[in-house]
Amino acid sequence: MSALSASRRILSAYVILYVAILYFPVLLLPVFSFNDSATPKLPLAGFTFKWYESLAGNAAMQGAAWNSLVVGVSAAVLSTVLGICAARAITRHRFRGLGAASSLIMAPLILPEIIIAISLLVVMLGLGLQLSLVTVILGHLLICVPYSVTVLVSGFEGFDPSMEEASRDLGETSFGTLRRVTLPMLAPSIVSSLLVTFTISLDEFILAFFLSGTEPTLPVYIWGQLRFAAKLPNVLALGSILIAASLILLTAAELFRRRAERKMELRP
Amino acid sequence: MSAAPMIDIRNVDKVFGNFRALDTLNASIGEGEFFSLLGPSGCGKTTLLRMIGGFDEPTSGEILIGGKSMAGIPPNLRPTNMVFQSYAIFPHLNVSENIAYGLKRLRLGREEEEKRVREALAQVELSELGPRMGNQLSGGQRQRVALARSLVMRPKVLLLDEPLSALDKNLREQMQVELRHLQRQIGITFVLVTHDQYEALSMSDRIAVMFAGQIAQIDSPKEIYQNPATRQVADFLGGMNFLTASELAVDGKVFRAVLPGIGAITGHLAGKAISDPASAIIGIRPERLRIVWEGETADHIVTGKVVDRNYYGEMTSLVVGIEGQSERVSVVETNDFGADDIPVGSDIAITYDRDAFIIMQG
């Protein structure tokens, strides 16, 4: 038995403990959402679907879900379009202020979200905007664009710029080149960007809370429900659905990203 | 070569920031000519090719194709097509779709389009590979698809950016022959960029040798090799022995020199204008020096010592020190007579072809 294998065992134990602490609370959510008891506590009382069933008849929750869908799809599409433009500029052109521009695009990722939320609230009210889903979409755009740009920059870097030149050389216009070469080659990155940003928007709470006015998104709705102890099992059920949806979307995004990578590789 | 050039490059400059990539270039390329731009990396040859294709604009000067100025005309409206160094085969399309890519815009109708694709595939001997996806091809196949995709557009000029550099040696040599045949067969102008002197020599009608943004010489392969204008050109085109001269005089069309350790020699200027004899230099190609074997006689015998020996299979290169010459000379001999067995350190007698000395601008 060498010191190496001993240290390796300690390391494995540490990793297992780390992962357990990280994910155990999250795993409790789905467990209690199927528990036939009004309070989430052990021992489990019995299996039930009733919390999910009562969600189905909850108009306020469905309204919030619809709001989230509208915000998520809008933010994802807008952020991906902006991301394509920014990623193309970053990867294909050299210009003054390139470094500054790309850092500024990424800045919202490291700024405290509460500060962004308060600043946006002040600015939007100052501009005389009514708080609505539109303001939420604008807020989400700010935090979604960095993810889009990251995904799409690697998409652009993954293919040879002379592909676009070859298209021009073969008689195609700039727009035709975008349609027939650039977008198809970026398709997996674009899908990946849409899925990632949709997921981010779907789960986002702070900006939505500050900017949503009278139209709550799902996380804002959940926050509202937490005040009522009796609604807690419903919230657990809804939370479980959100976790499942996020996992599925992010897995799909990663699969698309890998497919994109494979597609660009040349197989001899 | 017809009277009106296919491509006319007039006083072309290209400046990137404060780097002068191309410096007042002038060249005319004829219709149906196989023209090569040869030079080390960074000499500006690719920049010039990209300007002909429309991917870069000259800072000043102009490029005419078929007599028309190309200023401001984008690549898609020029009568040129390019084979890119990376081949740039679209990986999301199959081979036929790649070849049909440019035809789609011409709206030829399905039958005509399919016919042209079939012909192009046959031309590059890839008829079986139509349905294969672009990212499932070997290097040689991608090169052929790139070629077919350009030729199917029936350009007046085909531009080739180091098209063979990614291939291994045997395939490269085979493709050199094929490219040359193809060019003769379709008869359009080919402009090839390469840093490989053998490639340029074996394929071209004429070669422009470029250094640091300037064209040093434009000539036929034979002239370029046998009669390089400058020391730099001679050096780039394979081995050249540069010789020390104690006296050098230019007189009309001939030059006379005294070479220490070798003797007095004469040679022809061969059309060159040597503006400054003081900076001119005499040279001789290694294969124009021969070993004088035992029992042989020769008019001019030069003696020296073998300093080094390099074996190349079918031939051997001997590095010989000659007293009075500051640089060692190399002698290339085929191995039929045993040049590969001459020991390093032995004395050796060599002779030269009388007409083999070349004068170059230093």
Task: Summarize the helices and strands and which ones pair or pack.
The complex is a heterodimer of chains A (268) and B (362).
Chain A: H1 3-33, H2 50-56, H3 59-92, H4 98-106, H5 113-126, H6 133-157, H7 162-169, H8 174-203, H9 206-211, H10 218-225, H11 232-264
Helix pairs in contact in A: 1-11, 2-11, 3-6, 3-8, 3-10, 6-8, 7-8, 8-11
Chain B: E1 7-16, E2 19-29, E3 34-38, H1 45-53, E4 60-65, E5 68-69, E6 80-83, H2 95-100, H3 110-123, H4 139-151, E7 157-161, H5 169-186, E8 189-194, H6 197-203, E9 206-211, E10 214-219, H7 221-226, H8 231-236, E11 241-243, E12 247-251, E13 254-259, E14 263-268, E15 280-284, E16 289-291, E17 302-311, E18 315-321, E19 329-334, E20 347-352, E21 358-361
Parallel strand pairs in B: 3-8, 3-9, 6-7, 7-8
Antiparallel strand pairs in B: 1-2, 1-4, 4-5, 9-10, 11-15, 12-13, 13-14, 15-21, 16-20, 17-18, 17-20, 18-19
State the gist of this model.
Chain A is an all-alpha fold and 268 residues long. Chain A has one domain (60-264): MetI-like (MetI-like fold), CATH 1.10.3720.10.
Which consecutive residue ranges of chain A, at least 5 long each, have pLDDT under 50? Answer: none
Rg of chain A: 23 Å
The geometry of chain B reads as: globular
Structural class of chain B: alpha+beta
Give an overview of the whole structure.
The complex is a heterodimer of chains A (268) and B (362). Chain A has a single domain, classed as MetI-like (MetI-like fold, Orthogonal Bundle). Chain A is globular and about 70 Å long. With 268 residues, chain A is an all-alpha fold. Chain A is built from eleven helices and no strands. With 362 residues, chain B is α+β, with helices and mostly antiparallel strands. Chain B has two domains: 7-227, Rossmann fold; 239-361, OB fold (Dihydrolipoamide Acetyltransferase, E2P) (Beta Barrel), CATH 2.40.50.140. Chain B has eight helices and 21 strands. Chain B has a six-stranded mixed beta sheet with strand order 6-7-8-3-9-10, sandwiched between helices. The two termini of chain B are 32 Å apart. The A-B interface holds A 159-160, 162-163, 165-173, 176, 180-181, 184-185, 263-268 and B 53-55, 74-76, 80-82, 84-86, 88, 90-92, 101-102, 105-106, 135-139, 142, 149-150, 153.
